Amino acid sequence: MSRDPYHDFASDLKSSLSSARSLSQSYRQLLQSSSSTARASSSSGGEVDSAYDRLSDAIEGLRQDVEDVKQSVFVVERSGPERFGVTPEELKRRKEFVAECEAEIDSLSKVVKQSPPSGRASSTKINLPEEEDEDATEAFEREQQQILISRQDSTLDKIGTTLNSLRNQAGMMGQEISEQIDIIDAFDTEVDQSQGRLSKAMRKMDEVVRISDERLGGWCVWILIVVLFLLLLVVFLI
């Protein structure tokens, strides 16, 4: 079973979120304190600027942390949750956690953008596009390669199973053909034997007919002699 890095990333994200909440609360309190004073002292203004910078840096760190968590969820989903021992319900909870964290980060970003310190514009680094983490990209590419290799192995296994099945079927067909050939040979032998017996029977029948014809011819001669004798006798008597 592959190692699931989600819990490490999620733990770091939760810790960073907790720190960012505290920084956001401190920053808002400093803003309220400085705005309630008619003339904010330079030290108070410095504290506000420092709190603003710390909160901005924390938000940037949160964006990277939530991206790591999102990447880990994406890898688990693409590779197959069962490979990491993750149930579909757990995967759904992880996606919801990522969405909640992104919403909270957006809320913290609005605090920074809408309430910059006096005399300063909203930090430009909040609006800069995030740079891709090379390590995360390389890990994702390796994971994709492993997925492709796993799919190729699965496909090759299926092809091997199919070939074995075809080979077994071909062997069975060859055996059946051999059995049919043996049956046909036996049938031919029986036909030849039957033809021999039939020829012998026909010869016997011809002999019987010939003998019968000869005997019938002899009886006909004797009958004719008797008839002729009777005719002669009748003539003499008349």
UniProtKB/TrEMBL annotation:
Q: Where in the cell is it found?
A: Golgi apparatus membrane
Domain named T-SNARE coiled-coil homology is located at 146-208
List the biased-composition ranges (Polar residues).
115-126
Task: Identify the keywords attached in UniProt to this record, alphabetized.
Answer: Coiled coil, Golgi apparatus, Membrane, Protein transport, Transmembrane, Transmembrane helix, Transport
Q: How does it sit in the membrane?
A: Single-pass type IV membrane protein
User: Which GO biological process annotations does it have?
Assistant: Golgi vesicle transport; protein transport
Where in the sequence does UniProt note compositional bias of the Low complexity kind?
29-44
Query: What segment(s) does the record annotate as region Disordered?
Result: 29-52, 110-137
Give me the segments passing through the membrane: 216-237
Alphabetical list of InterPro entries matching this protein: SNARE, Syntaxin-6/10/61_N, T_SNARE_dom
Question: Does the keyword field hold Transmembrane?
Answer: yes
Matching Pfam families: STX6_10_61_N
Q: Which CDD domains does UniProt cross-reference here?
A: SNARE_Syntaxin6 (cd15851)
One of the record's GO cellular component terms: Golgi membrane
Where mainly found? Golgi
What PANTHER family is this protein classified in?
A: GOLGI SNARE BET1-RELATED
The family this protein is said to belong to: Belongs to the syntaxin family.
Protein name per the record:
t-SNARE affecting a late Golgi compartment protein 1
What phylogenetic lineage does the species belong to? Eukaryota, Fungi, Dikarya, Basidiomycota, Ustilaginomycotina
